[in-house]
What we know:
Low-confidence stretches: none
Distance between the termini: 39 Å
Number of strands: 7
Shape: globular
Family: Belongs to the short-chain dehydrogenases/reductases (SDR) family.
Helix content: 40-55%
InterPro entries: NAD(P)-bd_dom_sf, SDR_fam
Keywords: Oxidoreductase
Structural class: alpha/beta
Protein name: Dehydrogenase/reductase SDR family member 13-like
Number of helices: 8
Amino acid sequence: MTALDMAKRGARVILACRVKETGEAAAYDIRTLSGNNQVLFMKLDLASIASIRSFCKTFLSSEPRLDILINNAGIEGKGKTEDGFNLVFGVNHLGHFLLTHLLLDRLKQCSPSRIVVLASSAHSRGRIDFKNLNPSGESWMEIIQAYCDSKLANILFARELANRLQGTDVTCYSVHPGVVRTHLGRNLPQWLMLPIYPIAWLLLKNPMEGAQTSIYCAVQEGIEMYSGRYFADCQVQQVKPHARDDAVAKKLWEVSEDLLGLLK
């Protein structure tokens, strides 16, 4: 829905998606609904360093502008990434970290520009354990905890990124979209989903409602002073102390660079 809104505003939109068939179908639907033919699919798998680098190489060679980067992907599930990281932490944090790193120069060249990082209120239950950033994530309790940890990492990433971008005219924001009826939990076991689904259908936001804060942070004028802050319901929200610890944010940045081989 965020991409559809951007397309309706006349933007050239690149849908960076893992699955070609669904990505191309989404691009077609958005072109049809918006009347904007400048909506394209490019393949990107955030669970693969090679895929992220390939995407960025293709994007930078074919697209002269990048004005808004929305780090929207999220996953809950078992397993490891292609490079051996915990799947949830690897996709939700490390994948976005590397993608943003590789596209940052283009964002600076096109400033004023913005970066939006999809976080979650689940960050409040997250923790950054530098001794165990890559847990096995075999049990569902471990997977849910890894999700909370990754959302905390998203907020700390946006804070540290904002610090590093001071004076560049590139701003960034972390966003809680609300609890939205999406396919995020598609990998959760059926026994867990059955009691949740009827409640979710009644109480959760629909995708258009869930997109509003991302859209706000992407296009709203006059919020540059809030770079690095956390937004929910289109307003700046205060987070708990562990989600605004700049020392932890700085260390997480450095450890992420090391894990991704960016310091070599």
